Amino acid sequence: MSKLPKKHQFIDLSDYGRPIARGIANILKTTKYTPIDVTISFVISGLIGVYCIFKGYYYAAAFFLILKSILDAADGELARVKETPSYTGRFLDSVSDIILNFIIICTIGHLTNTNFVFTFLAFFGIQLQGTLYNYYYVILRNRFAGDTTSRVFEDKTPTALPGEKQKHVTLLFFIYKSLYGIFDEIIYALDKKAPEGNPFPNWLMTLISTFGLGFQLLIISVFLVLNLKELIIPFFIGYSAFIFVFIFIRRAFY
């Protein structure tokens, strides 16, 4: 099931694993496995990918990073087919993503003897890119009958949904805000009026989807396989300039 009505669907370059993710969700639909189990599995896959990067097994690293991306989509798909949406799963997914991103980039920085300032700038850029993509995407999903567990402004602790405990939601939301708050605030400050503007055109969303985590992991995987790991950190620092390009287009024309 798409998160957007047909008219507003766009080619999401970061969501290449969605068909496989749906297949995984359908296989697990009648089993005891939960979306959180799948989230844990993508964390394991990501950590194996990090180990392979550290050991120089770049093809294996690419496999596990892309598998992580597929499983990252599968947990949400499983929640939809089982009709068990939860804030616990939503925030656990996001917290896991940012921690894995930091570990991946730091590992690459260590192996390439990159100054930590530049390593951190790449990580910061990756997170800002992802935040802009999610910001615009959630605006569309909220406006056009999207899911209920993602909000444009994550400014207060949500009320637990049936089947989850409020204490878990509260704890994970606190961790989420601690890790993502600065990125959210920067993007909101750069484009506060985005929720009030015209719907974003599909072509623009396709371009912005290159900021999605799935595409970022694909880019990292390609650089690794080509044995160009030294270019990963400079690439993400430089590519962050497009944050301002996309925001300018949105503010100027939509």
UniProtKB/TrEMBL annotation:
The species is Polaribacter irgensii 23-P
**Molecular functions (GO terms):** phosphotransferase activity, for other substituted phosphate groups
Which residue spans traverse the membrane?
38-60, 171-190, 202-225, 231-249
* Entries under InterPro entries matching the protein: CDP-OH_P_trans (IPR000462), CDP-OH_PTrfase_TM_dom (IPR043130), CDP_ALCOHOL_P_TRANSF_CS (IPR048254)
Coiled-coil blocks: none
From what superkingdom does this record's organism come? Bacteria
Gene Ontology, cellular component aspect: membrane
**What lineage does UniProt assign to this protein's organism?**
Bacteria, Pseudomonadati, Bacteroidota, Flavobacteriia, Flavobacteriales
What Pfam families does its record include?
A: CDP-OH_P_transf
A Gene Ontology biological process noted in the UniProt record is: phospholipid biosynthetic process
Similarity comment: family membership? Belongs to the CDP-alcohol phosphatidyltransferase class-I family.
Q: Which UniProt keywords apply?
A: Membrane, Transferase, Transmembrane, Transmembrane helix
Its name, as the record gives it, is: CDP-alcohol phosphatidyltransferase
PROSITE patterns under this entry?
CDP_ALCOHOL_P_TRANSF (PS00379)
